[in-house]
Amino acid sequence: MTETTAKHRNPIARVLMGVLVFQLGIGALLVLGDMQGLRLPSFGPDAPRLTEPVRPGDQRRTFRPDRDRPVTQPARNPGELPNRLVLTQTDGTTYRLEGGISAGDADRITDMITQADPRPETLILQSPGGSVADALALGRTIRSEGIATQMLRGEFCYSACPYLLAAGTTRDIDADASVGVHQHYFGENTFLPAAFAVEDIQRGQAEVMTYLNEMGIDPLVMQHALSTPPDQIYVLLPEELERYRFTAPDN
């Protein structure tokens, strides 16, 4: 193995080790919960609200998209975003893709993209996230169709939305846009036996890491997602978006 190859693989190896440790810890808590009827504990202090600005080292915010939006000055006021993704043409081959990502959206939006006239060349994104499976499936459509992704000043892309953002053949992210990640929600252990819950976590994380690698994104971004609970969001700074290859160095 060359030195370059070793350097390229080491970050992925570190992420995989972190994922394994995380899964073992969650598995132990889930087994304990199944045996004793306990709920998973909440770790650490409450994060500030999303309306408070972020700064290096202070990037976790409470995640309640129905209540708060980031402290930004968007170029336009989208009003209340729909619960499902909506595709609308804005100018020529540029389209907006906005709203929550609901189950079934991947197939529905894929049909709209492939039937659109003119065909989309750029998608402007804004979404609080939602279904990870649909985000990954739709992201692969975006990539296979050769579509670029874009984020405008003051707009946001959280939770599963960054997977759509990652799919762009090019990614244009305004420095004042807000991109955030957190743990995926797999349900509470009161609904799933521990073994099945851990299996879901493992499968979901493997799918996400494979997807990020396909899209050219550094899987080390998962360290922030895995350490941020589902009711919080970790807002990536512009330098982190560059570090994890969401943006190019000259953006």
From TrEMBL:
The keyword Disulfide bond does not apply. The keyword Transmembrane applies. Residues 41-81 are annotated as: Disordered. The chain crosses the membrane at residues 12-32. Keywords: Membrane, Transmembrane, Transmembrane helix. Residues 55-70 have a biased composition (Basic and acidic residues). This is Periplasmic protein. It comes from Tateyamaria omphalii.
